[in-house]
Sequence to fold (486 residues):
Amino acid sequence: MELFFKNAYELSEMIRNKEISSRELTESVINRIEAVEDRVEAYTTLTKDNAIKTAIEIDNKIQRGESVAPLAGIPIGIKDNISTKGITTTCSSKMLENYIPPFNATVVDKISNAGMVITGKLNMDEFAMGSSTENSYFKKTKNPNDLSRIPGGSSGGSAASVAAGEAIVSLGSDTGGSIRQPASYCGVVGLKPTYGSVSRYGLVAFASSLDQIGPFGRCVKDVAMLQSVINGYDKMDSTSAYREYSNLSDNLKSDVKGLKIGMPKEYFGAGIDDNVKTAVYNAVKQLELKGAIVKEISLPSTDYALSAYYIISSAEASSNLARFDGVKYGYRTKDYDSLIDMYEKTRSEGFGDEVKRRIMLGTFVLSSGYYDAYYKRAKQIQKRITSEFISSFNDIDVIATPTVPSTAFKIGENTDDPLKMYSTDICTVTINIAGLPAISIPCGRDEKGLPIGLQLIGNKFSEQTLLDTAYSYEQLVGGFKMPAVL
Ligand code: GLN
Fold:
């Protein structure tokens, strides 16, 4: 197998045993990018020279016999809403097209301290608003399983790069499903961690109470390793959870004997494709045959989740995006007569349609006449959804659902129908609303050969249980296969 398609945990062994150098691996990934990027379009910025430089530094350290962290020398791509010092951080928006942050996000410091090799910044829906990466100002990323289809979103570049071998692992962000949904569409593994377990310092905010950075990989172990690098308390993020974080990959075990899995009936109703349901049922059945105990549960408020999510997230977005006014940083319109005129023109020209739609919706639901009818009620629903999840974890360990109702759709198929686009998030938004961790892993393909995702949801800070369950399934099916179309 080519180096660029191997898993990070194998490659890191090879690097530390001096079977390969990080430079060889990095060049393999860069050559792969050169071969397929014009078709996949996963990156907004490439940092090839810096990548080679870091790789050589790691190789030299290893040559000198110095100890290096487990993922040292491994190429990683970063979603373009995570601040990277000296490297453009555009959020795939015209507004930040030329913005170069003067600081690193905490996660970027962490992966750099671990010796990881940054290959570049990854395309996304503008300001992380979207489900297909079609809302990027720069380009449309393609699904490596079928180039006529979307890779999902908003972290479409993060999922597609890993599926296509253009990165070994990557970082994305998830506000309502943006890690899990593209992971499902592209056939890779994606983890949305517990709210507060990964620092948001340096992540450009979409909806601060829901946003969370998380890892993508081609296998569960890689995701566990990367999560162990990025998690932990950070005094720079006031919502960071102060607690002990144990190493998730060292403790990974494939044993589901006695594990109680709940299947919420509301996630298997109308609107979920039959082939998705069948694949998810079959996956859970296999875990049951290995000793898991499966039962049906009910989460009755699920029906209200999408409405609550789009109200809360848009309300927060309208406030967070107020900072892009042409004064402090980013785009500024060329001709204007007054300060107000400058604000108006800058924001009209700098933001795309979807971002404007969210700002208008958010401003509306927070306005004095409508606050009680919309925002307040959405917050009440959030409470109900959260308490239904928490009480269901009194007698189950893990909840299993589809990640997305159907497989990847064609580019352009849903662009004129925002509601249809929003409905792809039906199975994922509840988890952000409740602040829980959830992982998406591949669990089969439909008749067109497109990947289907299984979502496993756990109680707060139960990442180890989720990863163990995912790892058990991966062992049962003999690993996940990457697409061969490229
Ligand atoms: N698709 C959802 C939205 O557009 C989720 C986005 C996200 O998780 N960043 O809001």
About this structure: The mean pLDDT is 97. The longest strand covers residues 438-445.
